Amino acid sequence: MGTRATLKIMSRLVNEYKKDLTIRELALDLIRGVPGKNWRAEANRIFQFVRDQIRYVRDIQGVETIATPVKTLEYGQGDCDDQVVLLAALLESVSHPTAFVAIGYGPQQYSHVYLQTRVDRHWIGMDPTEPWPMGMRPKMPYQMVHYNR
């Protein structure tokens, strides 16, 4: 299908599901105790939920699948694209802009995707498939950024 086409599908899902009541209500519940206008703490709380509560599981052998954010919540698991679509929908439902970053070891050989969100004027990496804090990002020599608009 191609990386660009996959990123467009992921972006379409985010734009559709950021308005879903299940997603919006979960995001609001997650940030309930965060002090008002502490955007970094809001983003981190949502990131930690996806990182810690959604189990990483690979796609069907040889088949690229992308679950909706609601299905990923229902299953409690998903691969990198499922997790970042859920994370992006949750963040965007409370007005945090997001971008997908596809990465790989060769040009047009992308094998992983993680998320960035903008806090103030800085884009912050978020990889919910790894036990890393917000701000860490995987290191691979090639990347393609796709902004969710």
Give a brief description.
By secondary structure, this protein is an alpha+beta fold.
- Tell me the structural class: alpha+beta
Q: How many angstroms separate the termini?
A: 21 Å
Question: Helices and strands, in N-to-C order?
Answer: HHHEHEHEEEE
Major sheet size, sense and barrel closure: 4 strands, antiparallel
Number of domains: 1
Oligomeric nature of the chains: single chain
- Give the proportion of residues in helices: 40-55%
At the fold tier of CATH, the topology name is C8orf32 fold
The number of helices is 5
User: How many β-strand runs?
Assistant: 6
**Which architecture name does CATH use?**
Roll
Per CATH, the class reads Alpha Beta
- What spatial form do the alpha-carbon principal axes imply? globular
The strand line-up of the biggest sheet is 5-4-3-6
Rounded average pLDDT: 96
Low-confidence stretches: none
Q: How many whole angstroms does the radius of gyration measure?
A: 14 Å
Percent strand equals 15-25%
